[in-house]
Amino acid sequence: MVNRKTCFVCGTTKGLTKHHIVPRNFGSFGGFDAWWNIIRLCEKDHVAYHKMFDNGTYEPTLENLLKQLSRMRIKHLRKKEEQ
Fold this sequence. Notes:
Blueprint: E1 16-20, E2 38-42, H1 43-54, H2 62-82
Antiparallel strand pairs: 1-2
C-alpha cells in the first residue's frame, strides 16, 4: 500500500490516523510498521472499520480485513458519484 496523506476510504486530509493492514496483534504475522503495512484512515473511518470486527460482525482474517477496507472505499466512491 502507498502511505498517502489522505484517508484511504474517503480521501479527507483531516484527522488522519495510522492503520496497520495486518494488525499488530495478528498472531505471528503481527503488524509491522513497514510502509506496505500502513495506510491512513480518518478518525471516523478508522472507528467504523474497527467496530465491524470488535462487535463480531466479521472474523478478523487477513482476507476479511482487506475486503472490508475495499468495501468501505467502494461504498464511499459510489456515494460521492451520486452527489
